[in-house]
Every structure is written in C-alpha cells, then in structure tokens.
C-alpha cells in the first residue's frame, strides 16, 4: 500500500461529526469526512461527485499538539427575507497540530499528492474560515503501512509548544524525555471478535448539499512514542507571494500628462 501523510496545522480548526440545529461541535481530532473533503476539493471534485474511491482509503490521525477548545457565537440574516437567523454556537480547536494519513492504491494516492501541490479549491481545516498555516503535504507518498508511517513521522508540534513542555519538566526538577507519547486514531473495520473503541458518523457517502450522507466508522485508539528531536521537520522554502506576479509593461496608449504653468505667489500689500 501507498501512504500519504498530511500536516494539519492552523490557528483554528473544526472537525464536526454531528451538527444539530444551531450547535456545531468539533471532535478532538480531524474526521475522515473532513480530510476526504479536503482531498476532494484539491482535486476539484464537485459536492455531488462520487466519493467511493476516496471513502475506501484507510485513514488515521496522530495528535501532535492537542490545542484548546474555543467557543464562538455567530449571527446571520436570511438572504431573501433579511430576517435574523437564530444565534448559532460553534466550537473550534485553537493552535492544534495533527498528522493525518490516508493509504490506498499507489496511482490514486499519487494523484492526491499532486492535487495538494496545485489544488483546484483551496484546502481548509474543517470549515472554510479555517485555512492551514503551513503546507499540507509533509513528504511524497511512502510505501508501507499507514500505522507504521504515523508512528515514524517526525513530531510536528510548534516550537513554542515544545519549549513549554520542556519547561514544565524542568520546573519539576526533571529532564525532558527524549520521546513524547502521542495518541493515534486508526480505522477499525468490522470483523469477528473485533470491536472498535469509538464509533463516529464521519464516513462520507455524499457531500451533496441537498442530501448529505455519512456512514458509521469504527475507530481504534492507541499511542505512539515519537522522538522529540528538534530540527526533524522538513524546512519550507521562503514565502514570496510576488514571485508569481507577471510584470506589467507601460503601454504607449496611456494618456500623456500635460504640464501645467506654475501660479506665481500672491504678495500682500497691506
């Protein structure tokens, strides 16, 4: 199998598996429907497109930086009647970092990787108001098992989070451990004698806004020990937004500037 690892980091993220009326909650980690939606958007798939191949991908996520839960209130007006809509309550994860992965057929995974490098629709972390703060791709597709890839991937936590963790140990008179224990959430397909630890309704069937449909997915929870070595993360090239702009050459059709005669100053006689 071929594995594609994704870095999901941003100021805000929201990964809901259940929404009821005006209350929009978030899970503690990215959902399969949210990540599949990100990949489908990168490929340019419409909301009513077939998702069978993407839904069949094996999915897993590692919690590198849990973040904190944030609650927000939003108001809106009906576009036709302009009547005020009920006050909605929305939850987010602030300053969280995850390493998510999908595993499947090599050709499909390679196409997903290429789509993320030049996405048709911009990726977002659960909601359109939550853009990623770093490139989503970590490495090129890898050969192997998904769980092994998640266990071996470098720790992607932010520098300030690493420093705060080390400081906490030193204040207690302890040396910071060389490894960190991270939670892993992996697919747990049904089978004889095998029960999932968690069940989520986040298996995408259709993103069609006229009738969104999601199936149940079993999740197995475990832990991974990852080295805390600083500097293992892949260095990103400097961001230069003007590099892709095309220089504009002035044309001769521009209206000429007519010189004006300066007005002499007025001298007061009184």
Automatic annotation (TrEMBL):
State the superkingdom.
Answer: Bacteria
Name the chain's protein.
CRISPR-associated protein CT1976
Q: Biased composition, Low complexity: where in the chain?
A: 241-258
Chloroplast as a keyword?
no
Keywords, in A-Z order = Antiviral defense
Residue ranges for the region (Disordered) are 223-270
Q: Where is the composition biased (Polar residues)?
A: 223-235
């Amino acid at each position: 199998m071929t594995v594609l690892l994704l870095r999901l980091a941003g100021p805000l993220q929201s990964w809901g598996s259940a929404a009821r009326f005006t209350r929009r909650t978030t899970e503690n980690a990215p959902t399969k429907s949210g990540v599949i939606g990100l990949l489908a958007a990168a490929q340019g798939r419409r909301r009513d497109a077939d998702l069978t191949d993407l839904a069949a991908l094996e999915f897993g996520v590692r919690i590198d930086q849990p973040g904190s839960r944030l609650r927000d209130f939003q108001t809106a007006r009906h576009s036709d009647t302009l009547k005020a809509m009920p006050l909605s309550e929305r939850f987010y994860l602030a300053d969280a970092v995850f390493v998510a992965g999908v595993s499947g057929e090599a050709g499909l995974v390679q196409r997903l990787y290429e789509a993320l490098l030049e996405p048709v629709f911009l990726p977002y972390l659960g909601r359109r108001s939550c853009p990623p703060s770093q490139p989503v791709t970590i490495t090129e597709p890898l050969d192997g098992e998904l769980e092994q890839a998640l266990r071996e991937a470098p720790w992607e936590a932010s520098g300030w989070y690493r420093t705060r963790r080390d400081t906490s140990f030193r204040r207690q008179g302890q040396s910071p451990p060389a490894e960190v224990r991270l939670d892993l959430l992996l697919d747990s397909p049904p089978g004889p004698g095998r029960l999932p630890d968690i069940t989520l309704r986040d298996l995408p069937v259709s993103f069609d806004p006229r009738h969104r449909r999601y199936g149940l997915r079993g999740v197995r929870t475990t832990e991974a020990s990852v080295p805390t070595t600083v500097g293992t993360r892949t260095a990103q090239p400097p961001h230069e937004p003007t590099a892709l702009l095309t220089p504009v050459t002035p044309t001769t059709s521009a209206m000429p500037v007519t010189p004006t005669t300066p007005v002499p100053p007025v001298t007061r006689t009184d």
